[in-house]
Amino acid sequence: MGGAALLDELTFKLVDAGADGQAAATLLRAYPFTAGTPAERDTLLQRLIMLIEQHATPLDDDRWQALRDPLDTPALRSRQAALWTNLRQCATTRTLLGDMSPEYGYDDWMRLGDCSTSEAPALALRAYAWAQTLRSGGRASRALAYQAHAAGDYPTALAAWRTVGADQLSDEELLAATTTALAARENEQAASWLDTFQKRGASLDYRYWSLVAEAHTSSDAATAIGALERKTQLQPVAADFISLAHLEADAERQVRWLERAAALDDANATTQAELGFAYSRAGRPTAGLRAFERAAALDPTNMTVQVELGYAYWRAGRAADAGRAFERAWHADPANLKLAQQLVYVYQRLKQNDAARRYVRHVLDAPDAFSEASVDAPLGTTVDHRFAFQRLHEDLGRRVTVNLDGWSGTAVGGGSEATSAGRRYRSYSQVEADVRLGSPAIRDGSTLSAYARVFADGGDLRRAVPAQNPMLGVGLRWKPLRNRVIYLSAENQNGLEDTARREVLVRASASFLNGGPYGDEWHASQNGWFSQNLYLDGARYLKARHTAYTVDYRTSYHRQVSASATLEPYAHLQFNGYRSNRFNSDIRTDAGIRWNVWYGATRYDAAPHKLSIGVEFQHALDTYLSERNGLFLSLGTRW
Description:
There is one protein chain. The chain has 22 helices and twelve strands. It is α+β, with helices and mostly antiparallel strands and 639 residues long. The chain has a domain at 400-638: Beta Barrel (Porin), CATH 2.40.160.40. It has a twelve-stranded antiparallel beta barrel. Strand 7 and strand 8 form a beta hairpin. It is elongated. The N and C termini lie far apart (120 Å). The mean pLDDT is 91.
């Protein structure tokens, strides 16, 4: 008989005789029984473990340390792990089973998983997965589902719950499985489990309605709203009223829910800000502004709230208050280029042009200012956005403008905007200097300017060179509106050669349909663009008691021929009326082509100068003039 067999017989007799302590000591001295066969070693280890567990033997001293060291076979390590798990020594269990031998059984994997959920969650997840492969649909699947959910592995957790099956899940497990399905974005599965839960007649509590709302938020807003309403009846919570507001399509109902949320959490700046948005959507801007003011007062350091307060002030027409809010936000985040751009518009509205131009330069200097993410849609592409700011910088800094216009033709023709109102010539020229008055020179798009112009024509002999009848006109010109091109002017005229020629001219002129994509301004992002203009002019010569009218519609196409020049074929339809003793009218069509070049641009300023040279053919459809057709050469420039 071998040594292991003798040890087995001896310790068996000691136990049978009631000498458990002596038997345990004998077994411990022979541990780990390496001389025996696997079966003998297993028998001896089981007997030692039985003695330890029966007598609750403390294993804290060094004598028992060897029992913590992993033995050389999975079967023996399994016995060790069972002992230490029962003694709640999970660290030792993890050491014993941590080699993840595929020879371990279901119970081993469950012990390892149970001992690792907190201290080694990844190990627990692997252990439960192994256990489920050996015995699916039971405790292993449930444990795997909970552990995978805690680890954020929602697909694995969901698969584990499905392995168990809805019929085998308790009420609590059904709700847990539903939570996993929602986290995995399997809302249909979540809705199915919730339906099973309801059919069981279980208590439909706050948690249930919360899950119903979440399951239907993206697919069935009405069901989600109904669930949230039931939820708030059971336990009113501000976050649920906010969720109701987000689901509602009706602006007034959004306001109602957010008002209840604000009443429950009146110190929450974010809720007040949301209420402000809701009031604005409901067409209640004053209430919205008050909500944003409350939000800013509750959290003065919240720059997001400051920004929204600024926009609320801006929508309310309180530009100065908007500027202060935007300034606070911008100083907290100088890299916020959207705020810098908004401050440009604010200071432009406040007629603080130096500040507006300073922010324009800040925007233009920023390398990311015109990335696609920062471009406002109405201004188009990035290069158009940059150009718009450059043009604004140039216009806000302009005080003096000099224009030179002239044309000469083969016959008497209709006038242009530069021509003296109601007059017809073979040739005409004008040079004008316009000085914007006041400080600042331009006030939110409105200007008052003094101007002087010298103009001449081809005279009674209809000369081709416009050097006859020179006149000096001095006057005031007012542009009253920010966003409309309308001018009112009064001008005193004196003959330079014939000093007896004197006149006083009052005039109103306007330009429409010429802005945005259809304007004659340079289009930085396009190789070509259509433009149009409807020009209206009414003038009264006070001494002569003559009245003149012009209605001129032009459409054209600008084709870029270089980085700063276009060729512009165009066509006019023009009506001119002139009333003195009787009313004379002239209706004509024109077609021509112009070469336009813009020049003088800098880093911050769009090109301030423009030169146009064109050739035009005119045909009178109905006229009081003696000639119906003419070919004309035109020149126009602006400094």
